[in-house]
Amino acid sequence: MSRNYLKVCKLYLPREDKRCVESMRWEHMFLSIPLVDNKNIPINERRIYIEGLDFYESESKHPLPFATINGKKKTMENFWEEILGEKKHEDV
Known about the structure:
By secondary structure, this protein is of the alpha+beta class. Helix content is about 20%, strand content about 25%.
């Protein structure tokens, strides 16, 4: 099985008491990431890291929340397009 096209998606969230609407949007989007294709072959890997449990805020490379694909920080719009594609309901 070839894994050279596997995308590693990581989400870095603030701790629970610091969460905002943007954090909830990111988390919801991450839970929508398809992990396998229609042939059950892995296409994406997703990891969610939480401040205070998995890392300290001082270790964060960017303001929280933020996400990366294969180590590169992405805006919410770029992440949506690259991982989830265009919104299907807009085409109707």
